[in-house]
C-alpha cells in the first residue's frame, strides 16, 4: 500500500499539460518567426528592385510568387504533421529549414560579389540599362528565398494547431486562443516592419537578414523549452490517403443501390475519438461505407481499407469538399492584400516619408494596419465576443463564416479608398511638375494609412475566421491539413495577383507597364480590384449559405488498463 501511495504522490506532482501556460511558447514562436517573415514580405520588393536590379513588375511578381509558394506548400507541412510527426516536431523541423534559408540570404547580402553591380543615380527612364543578376547570383537568391518559404510553410501549418490542441474542444479558451495567436502574429509583424525594415534601410540587408536568422533560431529554442507541457497529437495516418480511399471504394460500389438507412453503413467506435454522423450532401460517397450482403441475406464486412470505409471517413471527405468553395471565394481578398505589399509600398517611395520629424521607410507603412489590429484584437476578444455571445448564444460571438464575410466587405472598401488616394497622389505630381522626378512628392505618406487601416480590420476578421473555421471544421485526424488549407487562400491570392497584373497590363495596353508610378494607371487598377471584390463577395455569400457546419458525436470511455485501451491524445512528444 505504501508503494501505491508513493506512486500516486508522484503522479500528482507531474506537471499539468496543455492550457494557457503551454500556449505561451506557441505565441513566442509565432511572434519571432512572423517578425522575420513579414519584415521580408513588405520589403523584399525593394531588395529585388534596388539590389538585384529586377524591374518593378518583375520585383512585384517575384515577391507574390514567393509568398504564394510559402503558403501553398503548407499543405505538405500539414500532411507531414497529421501523418508522420507530431505538430511540435513539424514546427522544429521546418523551422530549421527556414533558418538555413535566411542564412543563405544573409551571406548573399553581405558579399557584393554575389550580387549584380549597384544601379544608382540613373533617371527612372534609364533603369532598364542596369546589369541584371547572372544565373549564379539568381540561383543563390532563389535557393535562400524558397528555403525560407518551405520552412515557414510547415510552421504555419502545424503551429496554430499545436496551440489549439492545448485546450479541450468545448473549452471557451480555445476560441480566444486564435484571437491571441493573431495578436502575437501582429506584435511580431509590428517589430518586423519597423525595426527590421529600419535596419535593412539604414544598416544594410545583411544585418536585416542576419537578425531574421537569429529570430528564427531563438523561436525554435523557445518552442522546445515548452516540450514537457504540450498535449501532442498522435498521427493517425495520411488524411489524403483516407480521402482517396473513399473515392475509390465509392466508384467501385457505384452500381450498388443508394443506402437508405444508416444501419446499412459501416462505422467503428474508437476510444476518445469523434464520430461524424451521416449527412445528406454528396450522398454518392455513402456507397463507400455500404456493408455487403451475402446471398443468404447475412451481412459481411471486409475490413480492408480499399474495400470499405467508415461513415466518419466518408464524412471527413465530404467536409473537405464542402470547404473548397469557401476557400476559393476568399482567394481574391489575398490578391488585394498582395497589392498593398507591392504597389502600395512602391507608392510610398514617391512620397514624403517624414512623420513627426522621423523619416519612415516606405516598407514600414504596413505598421499602420498592424497597429489597428493590435488595438482592436483585445477589444474584439474581451468586449465584442462576450456581448455577442450573450445575444447569439454562440461561443465565438458570431459564426466563423460571418466573421470572414465582414472581412471581405472591408477589403472591397479598402481597394476603393486606395484608388481615391492614388488619384490624389498623381494629381499632386502633375500640379508640381514632378511626374518624372526622383524627388519625393509634397504629400505625406500617411495618406496611404487610410487603405491600410481598413484592410487591417479586414484581415483581423478574415485571418482568424479562416484559420479557426478550418481547424474546428476539420476532423480529428486532419487538423494540421485543415489549417494548411486555410493558408491556400493566401497562396492562390498571391499567384492570382501575378496573373491579374500581367492580364491587366496586356488588356489595358500597359496600365502598370512603366517603371514610373506617376505615369502608370494604378488608380484604375485599384478601382478594378474594388469592383471585382464586390462580385467576389456575392459569390462568397452563395457559398457560405450552402455550407453545412460539422456535427460531432464524441465517444468517451473510461480508460481501462486491464483491457489495454489507450487514448489518442498523448502527453508525450
UniProtKB/TrEMBL annotation:
Keywords: Membrane, Transmembrane, Transmembrane helix. The keyword Ligase does not apply. The chain crosses the membrane at residues 24-50, 62-80, 92-111, 138-159, 180-201, 207-226, 326-345, 365-388, 400-421, 450-471, 483-504, 524-547. It is a multi-pass membrane protein. It is found in: Membrane. It holds the Pfam family PTR2. Gene3D superfamilies: MFS general substrate transporter like domains. Its main location: membrane. It comes from the Eukaryota. The keyword Transmembrane applies. PANTHER family: OLIGOPEPTIDE TRANSPORTER-RELATED. Belongs to the major facilitator superfamily. Proton-dependent oligopeptide transporter (POT/PTR) (TC 2.A.17) family. This is Protein NRT1/ PTR FAMILY 4.5-like.
Amino acid at each position: 500500500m505504501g508503494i501505491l501511495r508513493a506512486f500516486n504522490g508522484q503522479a500528482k506532482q507531474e506537471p499539468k499539460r496543455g492550457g494557457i501556460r503551454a500556449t505561451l511558447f506557441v505565441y513566442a514562436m509565432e511572434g519571432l518567426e512572423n517578425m522575420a517573415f513579414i519584415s521580408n514580405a513588405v520589403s523584399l520588393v525593394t531588395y529585388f528592385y534596388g539590389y538585384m536590379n529586377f524591374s518593378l513588375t518583375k520585383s512585384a511578381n517575384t515577391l507574390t510568387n514567393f509568398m504564394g509558394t510559402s503558403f501553398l506548400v503548407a499543405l505538405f507541412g500539414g500532411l507531414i504533421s497529421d501523418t508522420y510527426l507530431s505538430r511540435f516536431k513539424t514546427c522544429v523541423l521546418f523551422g530549421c529549414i527556414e533558418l538555413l534559408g535566411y542564412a543563405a540570404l544573409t551571406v548573399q547580402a553581405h558579399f557584393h560579389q554575389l550580387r549584380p553591380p549597384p544601379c544608382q543615380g540613373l533617371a527612372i527612364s534609364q533603369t532598364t540599362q542596369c546589369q541584371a543578376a547572372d544565373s549564379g547570383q539568381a540561383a543563390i537568391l532563389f535557393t535562400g528565398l524558397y528555403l525560407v518559404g518551405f520552412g515557414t510553410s510547415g510552421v504555419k501549418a502545424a503551429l496554430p494547431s499545436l496551440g489549439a490542441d492545448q485546450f479541450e474542444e468545448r473549452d471557451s479558451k480555445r476560441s480566444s486562443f486564435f484571437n491571441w495567436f493573431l495578436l502575437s502574429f501582429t506584435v511580431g509583424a509590428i517589430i518586423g516592419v519597423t525595426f527590421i525594415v529600419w535596419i535593412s534601410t539604414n544598416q544594410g540587408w545583411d544585418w536585416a537578414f542576419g537578425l531574421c536568422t537569429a529570430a528564427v533560431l531563438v523561436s525554435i529554442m523557445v518552442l522546445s523549452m515548452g516540450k514537457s507541457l504540450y498535449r501532442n497529437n498522435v498521427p493517425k495516418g495520411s488524411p489524403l490517403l483516407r480521402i482517396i480511399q473513399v473515392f475509390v471504394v465509392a466508384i467501385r460500389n457505384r452500381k450498388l443501390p443508394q443506402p437508405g438507412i444508416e444501419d446499412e453503413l459501416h462505422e467503428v467506435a474508437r476510444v476518445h475519438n469523434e464520430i461524424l454522423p451521416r449527412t445528406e450532401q454528396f450522398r454518392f460517397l455513402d456507397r463507400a461505407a455500404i456493408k455487403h450482403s451475402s446471398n443468404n441475406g447475412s451481412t459481411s464486412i471486409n475490413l480492408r481499407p480499399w474495400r470499405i470505409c467508415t461513415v466518419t471517413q466518408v464524412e471527413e471527405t465530404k467536409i473537405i469538399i464542402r470547404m473548397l468553395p469557401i476557400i476559393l471565394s476568399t482567394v481574391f481578398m489575398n490578391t488585394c492584400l498582395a497589392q498593398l505589399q507591392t504597389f502600395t509600398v512602391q507608392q510610398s517611395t514617391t512620397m514624403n516619408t517624414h512623420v513627426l520629424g522621423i523619416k519612415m521607410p516606405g516598407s514600414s507603412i504596413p505598421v499602420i494596419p498592424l497597429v489597428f489590429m493590435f488595438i482592436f484584437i483585445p477589444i474584439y476578444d474581451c468586449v465584442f465576443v462576450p456581448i455577442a455571445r450573450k445575444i447569439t448564444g454562440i461561443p465565438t460571438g458570431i459564426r466563423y463564416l460571418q466573421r470572414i464575410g465582414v472581412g471581405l466587405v472591408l477589403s472591397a472598401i479598402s481597394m476603393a479608398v486606395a484608388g481615391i488616394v492614388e488619384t490624389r497622389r498623381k494629381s499632386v505630381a502633375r500640379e508640381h511638375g514632378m511626374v518624372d522626378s526622383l524627388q519625393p512628392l509634397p504629400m505625406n505618406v500617411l495618406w496611404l494609412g487610410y487603405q491600410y487601416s481598413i484592410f487591417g480590420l479586414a484581415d483581423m476578421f478574415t485571418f482568424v475566421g479562416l484559420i479557426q473555421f478550418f481547424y474546428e471544421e476539420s476532423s480529428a485526424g486532419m487538423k494540421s491539413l485543415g489549417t494548411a488549407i486555410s493558408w491556400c487562400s493566401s497562396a492562390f491570392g498571391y499567384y492570382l495577383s501575378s496573373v491579374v497584373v500581367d492580364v491587366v497590363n496586356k488588356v489595358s495596353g500597359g496600365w502598370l507597364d512603366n517603371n514610373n508610378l506617376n505615369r502608370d494607371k494604378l488608380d484604375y487598377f485599384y478601382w478594378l480590384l474594388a469592383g471585382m471584390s464586390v462580385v467576389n463577395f456575392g459569390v462568397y455569400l452563395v457559398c457560405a449559405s450552402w455550407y453545412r457546419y460539422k456535427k460531432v458525436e464524441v465517444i468517451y470511455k473510461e480508460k481501462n488498463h486491464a483491457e489495454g485501451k489507450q487514448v489518442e491524445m498523448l502527453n508525450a512528444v
